[in-house]
Design a protein that fits this description.
This protein starts with 7 loop residues before the first helix and ends with a helix. 63% of the residues lie in helices and 7% in strands. It is mainly alpha-helical. The chain has a two-stranded antiparallel ribbon. It is globular and about 50 Å long. It has helices spanning 8-17, 32-42, 48-69, 76-89; strands at 20-22, 27-29. The protein has one domain (8-89). Helix 1 packs across helix 3.
Length: 91
């Protein structure tokens, strides 16, 4: 994973908190209640935009994790490469 300068603490917070939670029957992205409890308990995040960013990061992590379950799924790198190749093919 690439090193981030200013936002690395959000990545660290996401993995410290856990980007997914178990509902007992399934795994889902961390919800607002989980993020709020983590923020209050640790003090790692406090600004509204940090809550929103962490929520979106957890949702993206979950989406990628879920897509990875599919045996024929493309990795995020493959998707990005395909998208950039199709953009360069455009006149």
């Amino acid at each position: 994973m690439p090193d981030l300068d200013a936002g690395q603490y959000l990545v660290d917070a996401m993995f410290k908190m856990g980007p997914t939670i178990s509902t007992g029957m399934d795994e889902v992205a961390a919800d607002w209640i989980t993020i709020d409890a983590f923020a209050r308990g640790t003090g790692r995040i406090s600004e509204p935009w940090e809550f929103e960013a962490l929520f979106e990061m957890c949702a993206a992590y979950f989406q990628g994790w879920r897509a990875g379950v599919e045996p024929l799924a493309m990795s995020p790198v493959e998707i990005a490469l395909a998208a950039s190749a199709s953009e360069s093919d455009q006149p």
